[in-house]
Amino acid sequence: MKNKASMILFMLGLAIALSACADGNKSNSEVNQTTQTGSGSRSKDEQTAAETTAESKINFEKGVFIDLEKENNALLNEQIKEVLKKNLDAQVSLDEETFRSTFKDSKTADSYMGSFGGEYKFTEIYNISEDKTKHQILVNVTGKMLRDNVIEDAAITYYFDADANRKWSIVAID
């Protein structure tokens, strides 16, 4: 009786092992099927993934579409307009040096490098206000951003402050 049970278990284990090997060979042969292309060969899975990626690419026009000359708010002086435009353009064109130059100092720029990069479409100045307690001008910019192949709303507040020489620069971004 003991021998019969051992024999049954052995046969069952052998059958499982053989079926696993057979499935493994089938999978390998499917994986090895290739499609010839002009530059070489790719597996069917690679070809399908490439086609899906090409089809799912979202059309997104990045840029700065704000006419700062049309902004008629006394708080938004020419120097602030210039610094804001420079920062937005640098963000869109991924010009790190110019982006950094719009901040009060290099330490402040270092603090906001995490906000640098990405694909943006800036479309509107939503609000301009003054924080009289800190003597800062706040400019809210809105638009769109592309992140992980999804277009999202973007709203960024720029905080401007003038130094002792009345030179305006960005002191914070939120």
In short:
The chain is an alpha+beta fold and 174 residues long.
Could you outline the blueprint of secondary structure elements for this entry?
Blueprint: H1 2-32, E1 34-37, E2 40-43, H2 44-56, E3 63-64, H3 78-93, H4 96-101, H5 106-111, E4 119-131, E5 136-147, E6 150-162, E7 168-173
Parallel strand pairs: 3-4
Antiparallel strand pairs: 1-2, 4-5, 5-6, 6-7
Which terms would index this structure?
globular; 5-stranded mixed sheet; two-stranded antiparallel ribbon; alpha+beta; single chain; 174 residues
Describe this structure in words.
With 174 residues, this protein is an alpha+beta fold. The chain has 5 helices and 7 strands; from the N terminus they run αββαβαααββββ. The protein has helices spanning 2-32, 44-56, 78-93, 96-101, 106-111; strands at 34-37, 40-43, 63-64, 119-131, 136-147, 150-162, 168-173. The strands form 2 sheets. It has a 5-stranded mixed beta sheet, covered by helices on one side. The radius of gyration is 30 Å and the shape is globular. It starts with a helix and ends with a strand.
> Taking strands numbered 1, 2, ... along the chain, how are they ordered across the largest sheet?
3-4-5-6-7
- Report the structural category: alpha+beta
Distance between the termini: 79 Å
Overall 3D form: globular
Number of beta-strand segments: 7
How can the largest sheet be summarized? 5 strands, mixed
User: Would you identify the regions where 5 or more consecutive residues have pLDDT less than 50?
Assistant: 23-40, 50-55
- The averaged pLDDT comes out at 80
SSE run = HEEHEHHHEEEE
Radius of gyration of CA atoms, rounded to a whole number: 30 Å
Percent strand: 25-35%
Helix content: 40-55%
Supply the number of helical segments: 5
